[in-house]
Amino acid sequence: MEGVIPAASGSGHQDSSSSCCRAVAEFPAGGGEAFLLEGNDGCGSLGWLAARAGADAPGTGEVKALTEWLGCPDLTVDPATGHHLPPDPERLRPLLTLLAPGRYVMTVQTAPHETRVVHPRGHAVEQWYAEEDLALLTTDHWPPRREAVVRDYARRIRAGGLPALIALRPTPAGRVGYVLDGHHKLTAYQWAGVRPLILWLTPQQPQPFRREDRERARGALLAGRADRERRSLDKVLAYIGDEARRSA
What we know:
Number of strands: 8
Shape: globular
Helix content: 25-40%
Strand order of the largest sheet: 3-8-6-7-5-4
Oligomer: single chain
Radius of gyration: 19 Å
Number of helices: 7
Distance between the termini: 30 Å
C-alpha cells in the first residue's frame, strides 16, 4: 500500500490524505560528524547508522524499540484492498532523524517482483533486468553475520509473520532500493521462499542525477578495465548523462 511520509527540517507538523492513505510529517534532521565505531548493540543496521550520526542521533532505547517493532509490526490492513496501511510517522522518528532534510514518501508493500540482492563491491558492475527484478542493495555485512537471528526470523515468517524491511528508493517508480534496516530479515525471507514486506522511503522531490556523480562513477568503473569493457561502459554512462540533461 502506498503512503507518503515527508521528513523535513522543522518540528512536528503532520497531516494525512485519505485519497491514498498518505501521512505527512516534518522532523528535525539529525546529523553530526561521522566517526568510526564497530560493535553489536543488538539494534541491527539501524543501530549501526545511528552510531555514526553524532551527538544528535537517536538514543539506543529509541532505536531498539523501533527495531523490535519492525520485527513484528502492527500494521493496519485496509479491508477493501487487503494492502497494509502506512504506520504513524511518529513510529519512525528514530530513523527519520537520520535522513537528510526533505519530505519523503512512505510505501508499505510486499515486494511485487522477484528480489535480487546486490552487495556493492569496489569496481564491480552488477547486471539485472529492471523490468523483471526488484534490486535491493545492501548497506551492511552480506550475508548477515548472526545466523541464529536469521533462523528466528525464518521461523516466524514460515508461521505467517511478516517482519518489515526499511529501504530507501531514489525515485517513486524505481526498482532499486538501499536496505537501511533488515538484512537478517531479508535473508530469512529468502530462506523461507517468501517475498519480503518492505517499508519504502522515497524523496518526494527526487534529486536529478548530477554531472559530478556521473564523472565520479565513470572514473571508478573504467579504471583498470580493458578497452572493450571501457567502450561498453562509456556508452551506458553517456546515455545516463543524456537522460539527466533532458530531465533537468
